[in-house]
Amino acid sequence: MSEGLSFPVGRAWWLFALYGVIGVVFGITAIVQPAAAGIAMAWAAGVMAIAEAVVSLLALFNSNTAVSKGWLAFYALASLAFGVLAIMNPVATATVLVILLAAWLIVGGIYRIVFAIRVRKAIEGEWMIALSGLLAVVLGVMFMLNPLVGIVVTSFWIGVLAVVYGVMQIIAGLGLRKLGNAAGAGAHP
Helices 147-187 and 13-32, interaxial angle, to 10°? Predict the structure, then answer.
C-alpha cells in the first residue's frame, strides 16, 4: 500500500473492528437463538425493502433516472408491498423464503444428479457430485416438510458464518491499526 494511503486507512481500523464485533454478536445470537434470528432477518429485510421503496419513489421525481418511470414505480410498489408484509408478518416471510430455498435445493440437487450421470464416463469422482445432489434434495424436502426447521438451520449456519466474518473483520481492523500506527509514526517525526 502506498505511504499516502497507509495512514488514513489505518486510522479507520476501528470501523473494521466494530463491524467485526457486530458480526460476532449477531452470529452468537443466531447460533443460540436461531428461530428468533431468522425472524429478525426477515423483519430486517422488510425494513430494507421499505427503504429501497422510498428511495425509488423519490427517484421518480428525478429527470435523470436510468430506467423508465413505469419500471421504477413498479419496483417501488413491489418493494413497499414486500417490506410491509415482511414487517407485519416476519414469520410468514421467513417461511416463504425457506420454502423458496427448499425448492431451489431440490431443483439444484436433481440437476447435479443428472449432470453426474451424464459425465460419469468423462470424469472420476462423479459419485461425489451425485451425492451432493442427493443431499441437496434431501435437505430441500426436509425444509419443505418443516419450514420452521429450515429457518432454524439456515439461521444457525448464517450465525456461524457471521462469527467467522466478525473474527476476520476484527483481525483486519487490528492489522490496519498497526499499519496506521506505523504510518503515523513515520509521518510525525
Answer: 160
